[in-house]
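Table S7 (text form). Paired inputs.
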Amino acid sequence: MPVYEAIIDVGPRPGMPGVTDDSRKAVGDEIAENLAAEAGDEAITDLRIVVSPVGAIVLFTKSVPAGLDPDQELRAFTRQALARGRFADWQMLTSSLTELHAE
């Protein structure tokens, strides 16, 4: 199964409040918890989250079953994870995938 590194930029929709300096850690922690909950038994590794006033950049590694579109699968995975809690109205701004290796 191929393993990909995903870099996904997410943030509040226009007109929504951004991230305050006081909430940066909480936002990062909640995104990490949401991704772990969405992954369930599937492994996501090398998780890094950089939170800024305009959103967050989420970096992680995850396998995608052969034959599936990795961009579509990883974007859907991230979208479903963000749908939990306060990030339901956030949008995905950009994404980048790099195939690392096959398991």
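Next pair, protein 2 of 2.
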Amino acid sequence: MGKKVASASKTGKPKKPRKPKMTEDQISDYVARLEQAVGDNDKFLPIIDELNSAAVAELVAIASKFVSPMAASSTKKSAVERIMKRHQNLLSFKRKQKAVGGRSAA
């Protein structure tokens, strides 16, 4: 009963939030390019390939503007997944519209 268990939490300074190395103009440029290419695999996927070489902070900033705000502590994988999800949702919507010929399914 007298034994102390080591804490799993770290003590000391809290982590500083990651700051993007890209400028706001560069981030806005990527967001604009994604907006123009969303729903078109031939245009969208090469931009995603470019973004895979970006740092985590840049991807999180781009995903936050392109889709919805994300925590600065988010991972690179979750940022790319969020960007891709918006693209996939639009592709799915287009396929469904084509399948029903623009008519209501009701």
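The radius of gyration is 20 Å.
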